Amino acid sequence: MSDEPIYQAKVLDHSKSPRHYGEPSRFVARRTGVNPLCGDEVTLYLDEAQVLQFVSKGCALCRASASFLTTAAAASPRSGWSELVPGAELRDVARAFPSRLRCVELPWQTFAQLLGELAQE
Ligand SMILES: [Zn+2]
């Protein structure tokens, strides 16, 4: 990706070594989001231990954003999940590349949908 060198180091790190990556063998909830503009697809899983995990296809920015999300969720009580927002590093990237905003937002929008489904149960 040609714009990759100016991504912030932390974003690059998460894209290369995504946290909480993988499909759990058992999960209590799952939600997939798609960004047709970029071909991104991200699936979030809530496993039985209430850990948020993900798998993604598509661009590095979407993967990094999902990794930030699962990391933020792991550091927050479940009651605070609805208030999680992309961090400054991600917002900086989205500001630099407005066309990539969807890539950053996709995991977070998918997460909001997952929480909405859980709230209805
Ligand atoms: Zn993308």
How is the quaternary structure best described? Answer: single chain
Mean residue pLDDT:
91
Strand percent estimate = 15-25%
CATH topology: Sufe protein. Chain: A
Supply the CATH class.
Alpha Beta
Fraction of residues in H or I helices? 40-55%
Low-pLDDT segments, ≥5 res: none
Largest sheet: 3 strands, antiparallel
End-to-end gap: 41 Å
H/E series = HEEEHHH
Q: Total number of β-strand segments?
A: 3
Integer-rounded radius of gyration: 14 Å
Within the largest sheet, what's the order of strands? Answer: 1-2-3
The CATH architecture:
Alpha-Beta Complex
Task: Lay out the secondary structure.
Layout: H1 9-16, E1 27-35, E2 40-47, E3 52-57, H2 60-74, H3 88-96, H4 101-120
Antiparallel strand pairs: 1-2, 2-3
Helix pairs in contact: 1-2, 2-4
This protein binds zinc ion (ZN).
Zinc ion is lined by residues 35, 38, 40, 58-59, 61-62, 103.
At a glance:
The chain is built from four helices and three strands. It is α+β, with helices and mostly antiparallel strands and 121 residues long. The chain starts with 8 loop residues before the first helix and ends with a helix.
How would you characterize this protein structure?
By secondary structure, this protein is an alpha+beta fold. The protein has one domain (4-120): Alpha-Beta Complex (Sufe protein. Chain: A), CATH 3.90.1010.10. The protein has four helices and three strands. It has a three-stranded antiparallel beta sheet, with helices on one face. A hairpin with a 4-residue loop joins β2 and β3 (52-57). The longest helix is centred in the C-terminal third of the chain and has 20 residues, at 101-120. The radius of gyration is 14 Å and the shape is globular. The structure holds zinc ion. Zinc ion (ZN) binds at residues 35, 38, 40, 58-59, 61-62, 103.
